[in-house]
Amino acid sequence: MFETSRPLAERMRPSRLEDLIGQEHLTGEQGVLRRAIRAGSIPSMILWGPPGVGKTTMANIIANELKIPFYTLSAVSAGVKDVREVIQKAQRQQHAILFIDEIHRFNKSQQDALLGAVEKGIITLIGATTENPSFEVNAALLSRCQVYTLKSLSKEDLLSLMDHALQSDPELKKKKVNIKENEALLSISGGDARKLLNLLDLVVSHLPGDDVEVTNEEVKRIAQQRVAIYDKSGEQHYDIISAFIKSIRGSDPNAGLYYLARMIEGGEDVKFIARRLLILASEDIGNANPTALVIATSTFQAVTMIGYPEAEIILSQCVVYLACSPKSNASYKAIKKARGLVKETGDLPVPLAIRNAPTKLMKDIGYGKGYQYAHDFPGNFVHTEFLPEAISGTKIYDPGENPREAEMRKKMRQFWKEKYGY
Question: What are the respective helix, strand and coil percentages of the chain, to the nearest 5?
């Protein structure tokens, strides 16, 4: 059995820019961070990206390259007191880097505690987040930081990581490992490099003998046996939220509540859960039941105000309501289709009749000429052309098969006859 004190992802964590795989746009030869490190000075920054793409590794590399005192806090467990202690140490050392993992979980008072030290240059802040910092980091702190977006690792990046680990890690090298199939490794890890390496370590350590062959079936069997370990370490964060959303989309309130409980027990950020419900209400229910968006919006506002433990009651109510609601993704599909059409057809000219005509010249050349004001006609409707001529008659919105949208389809058919095929 391999050593369990340090996971493979930790054993393989690079300490030099040259060894970092991925994020070339930031750390490649022309990358902004590489240039800053070469100059010997970096700005305070927020590293935003999916899990397991190198945020923590990048912070460690920066500190190592610049030879600056380095402190790490996790926003899950640290408070204002911990932040102030680091700032005091940095003052005595004249400067330090403070890395805060999951900075989106810091509340306003915790983030405010950083402001003065960041502004005065006592600390260089590096925050890591999987959430959009525009929503989760307060404006005052965000204005003092550069935001760098990390990209998901490509399949080639992930395969390179595994090859490097097999060739370099002393524990893995104790066996002759042949990765016959890699699809299950890549699929279960979901693009998370840390999860991928630790899964590889787990699989190889559980295969008997010194000459082992890794197959998709073996990976699934071993991963299934150890799924609870991934729960405890928090690596199933995105698996749980995925199951949560899919359960509600699939109209199963029981499964939705189960995964909600899993997240609550795991200490998940209440706003993270509420935001996902808000998106689902529009993406998966939409106009089949417009009230769903109202309920989800109220839920977000309410749980933000009261927090745990009472927030679980409001979340539960919302989950049950959304799961039991009729579903439609027609509006979601419509905007995707509309954007695809725009990319395909480019900047088509807007019909003259519905152009804005704020000046005499525009009126003289026909802007707004012939526009018919819908409210001047019976039923507040007049048959006219709104789309550019080249795509006239293109149906973008196709109502879903539910009572509310059936009424919308009927109304559109009444208005537009055969034009859009309603």
Answer: 60, 10, 35
**Within 10 Å of residue 48's Cβ, how many Cβ atoms?**
22
Q: How far is CA 409 from the centre of its chain?
A: 34
φ, ψ of residue 87 in degrees (nearest 5): -60, -40
3-state secondary structure (DSSP) of residue 38: helix
Q: What is the DSSP letter of 229?
A: H
Per-residue pLDDT of the chain (422 residues; tens, 9 = 90+): 444 457 888 888 888 888 888 888 898 888 889 999 888 889 999 999 888 888 999 999 998 888 889 999 988 778 888 889 999 999 998 889 999 988 888 888 888 889 989 999 899 999 999 888 887 788 888 989 999 999 888 889 999 999 999 998 888 888 898 999 998 888 888 788 888 998 898 888 888 888 888 998 888 888 775 544 334 344 466 778 889 999 999 999 999 999 999 888 777 888 889 999 999 999 999 999 999 999 999 999 999 998 888 899 999 999 999 999 999 999 999 999 999 999 999 889 888 888 888 888 888 888 888 899 999 999 999 999 999 999 999 999 999 999 999 999 999 999 999 999 99
**In the chain, ranges of CATH 1.10.8 domains:** 155-233
Residue 138 corresponds to which amino acid? N
**CATH 1.10.3710 residue window(s) in the chain:** 334-416
Q: Quick one: 22-149 is in which CATH superfamily?
A: P-loop containing nucleotide triphosphate hydrolases (3.40.50.300)
- Distances in whole angstroms, Cα of residue 346 to Cα of each of 245, 315, 342, 390: 34, 43, 5, 11
Query: What is the four-CA torsion angle of 159, 165, 168, 169, rounded to 10 degrees?
Result: -170
Q: Which class in CATH covers the domain with range 334-416?
A: mainly alpha
Q: Which residues contact 191 (CB under 8 A, 6 or more apart)?
A: 50, 52, 53, 152, 153, 158
